[in-house]
Amino acid sequence: MSEAPQRREIFFEFTRMDENLRVCAVDAITGIEIVTILPASTPESQAQKQALKKLLWRLERESEGAEEGGDTPRRPPGKYI
Residue 29 contacts by C-beta under 8 Å, 6 or more apart in sequence? Predict the structure, then answer.
C-alpha cells in the first residue's frame, strides 16, 4: 500500500495440528480471511506477523480490483466465519 495503512481490527486464531500451526487472520471491516500453515515450532509473534503480511497483501489486491472495476469474483454480502 502506497499510503499509510489504516488502523484496522484484525482477529487471529491459532490452531496446532500435529507438527503444524494453522493461523487464521480476519479483517473485521471487510470480513476477508486468510489462512497460513507454518511449522508448530514457529513463535506465535512471528506467525502473527506472517499472517498479517499475507492479509494486508490480500486486502491490497482486493482494493486494486475494486479500483479497476476488476473482474475478480466477489463473495455475496453477509457475514462469514
Answer: 8, 9
Tell me the pTM: 0.71
Domain ranges of the chain: 10-66
Structure confidence by residue, pLDDT tens digits, 12-62:
999 999 999 999 999 999 999 999 999 999 999 999 999 999 999 999 998
Of the candidates 61, 58, 56, 48, which has an alpha carbon nearest to the alpha carbon of residue 22?
Answer: 48
Confidence (pLDDT) at 2 = 47
Q: Which of 36, 59, 40, 60 is nearest to 49 (CA)?
A: 36
Are 59 and 30 in contact, with CB atoms under 8 Å apart?
yes
Spatial CA neighbour of 80 closest among 44, 28, 8, 4? 28
Beta bridge pairs of residue 15: 22
